[in-house]
Amino acid sequence: MKKMIHVSNQGATLDTGRRNFLKLSGVGLAIAGLTMIGCNDDDDFQMMDNSKIFDLGTGDVGILNYAYALEQLEADFYTKVVNNFYTGISSIEKEVFTDLYHHEVIHRDFFKAAISGATQNVLPKLDFQYPNVNFNDRNSVLATAKALEDTGVAAYNGAGKYITNPDYLVIAGKIVSVEARHASAIRNLINPGSADFSGDDVIDANGLDLAKEPKDIVMAAGGFIKTRFTWKERGIN
């Protein structure tokens, strides 16, 4: 049976009249709400065993839980940033971080609703840590944001080939385009007016964003994630 999942932007009180970088880059996807059709009750879903460490699952469910884990991390990070802006932050930087906060919260809640609408094997709320991040220091916050956004883009690009449901693939493609704009915005804050948004560290010789395997992404982000989980299908134990 097909289910339709809706996540609205209710409560995301952004100034939609601002003509800033993110608005001009087409991030309307993130603030206009998301809809996904095609969650089949008979897809490759697994029941959750609370007595064991959570496994993301197999097939498309594993991919959705993987994306949900990453969106939880980004939403948690930006929540901490906007709840206590670093000293000396500019008005432009406040706007960018506030926008990114709203986008990532919407992405996180979208994945939770989508997975919950189709299976009980939903990744629980994760706990995070930031041992090397000084949230009162501009350079530390921007460097961490840059690492998270670049990692997010590479994660979606690397996971796309494993998605079998075309509806999921369309949604992933839309969200990764937003994440790429986030990465560009952060890089522009670090080095305004530069070409860092397309630096050699994130763009390959063909001019395409890098793609990384889930195992490499989880290893890179693992220092932030306190809650242990596995993804045996992808060799993450």
UniProtKB/TrEMBL annotation:
Residues passing through the membrane, by range: 21-38
Official protein name in the record: Ferritin-like domain-containing protein
Lineage: Bacteria, Pseudomonadati, Bacteroidota, Flavobacteriia, Flavobacteriales
UniProt xrefs under SUPFAM superfamilies: Ferritin-like
Keyword entries, A-Z: Membrane, Transmembrane, Transmembrane helix
Pfam annotation, one family: Ferritin_2
Keyword Ribosomal protein: no
Organism annotation: Chryseobacterium jejuense
Entry annotated with the keyword Transcription regulation: no
